[in-house]
Amino acid sequence: MSKPDYVYVTYIETTADRLWHALTSGDFTERFWFGYRVSSDWKVGSPYHLSKDSSRAVQGEVLIADPPSKLAYSWDVVKEGHAREQVSRVTFDIEPHGGVVKLTVTHDNLGPKTLRDISGGWPMVIASLKSFLETGRELPADLLTSGAREAYHA
Fold first, then answer.
1. Are 114 and 88 within 8 A, CB to CB?
2. Edge-to-edge strands, sheet with 47-52
3. Beta-ladder partners of 95
4. Which of 76, 12, 22, 70 is nearest to 50 (CA)?
């Protein structure tokens, strides 16, 4: 069995339900995901997309939707000017641990450019999500270097 291409684990002082809602609500993602808005009905087999300023950046299909413990979807970068690679998969495992929730983000089946981009991107997005859920404030975009932000969103 081969290991996943990318795994990121963090603990967030929140509930599993609140974390699930943050990951699946466009109003929430737009705040912590640096202006990107997620959209789907979150039923297995349904399409989803991640957009900014009405321009679709990532699209895919919901693969697993088991609220509030597991969400998975395919990840196909379709942003204009971005070289297309193979479709990858993102899985969010949400596990309550007392007063915190363990979030494991696994992104696998990655092409080399996508691996490079998400290796810088997921830590920023998840840190912003954690800050947003714990303090009500996402990370300010101006604190992040435009190069790091652009690598993730290019």
1. yes
2. 6-12, 100-108, 88-97, 70-77, 55-66, 47-52, 37-39
3. 102
4. 76
Q: How far apart, in whole angstroms, are the C-alpha atoms of residue 77 and residue 60? A: 9
Residue with tokens 């291409």: 5
The residue with tokens 């971005």 is 82
Tell me 140's DSSP state.
Answer: P
In tens, the pLDDT along 15-58 reads 999 999 999 999 999 999 999 999 999 999 999 999 998 899 99
Token pair listed for 114: 């996508």
pLDDT at 54: 84
Instruction: Report the distance separating Cα 100 and Cα 38, nearest Å.
Output: 24
pLDDT band for position 3 (cuts 50, 70, 90):
low
CA distances from 115 to 24, 37, 74, 78, 121 (A): 23, 21, 14, 15, 10
Q: Kindly tell me the burial class for residue 5, based on how many C-beta atoms sit within 10 Å of its own C-beta (0-12, 13-18, 19 or more).
A: middle
The predicted-structure confidence for 125-134, as pLDDT tens digits, reads as follows 999 999 999 9
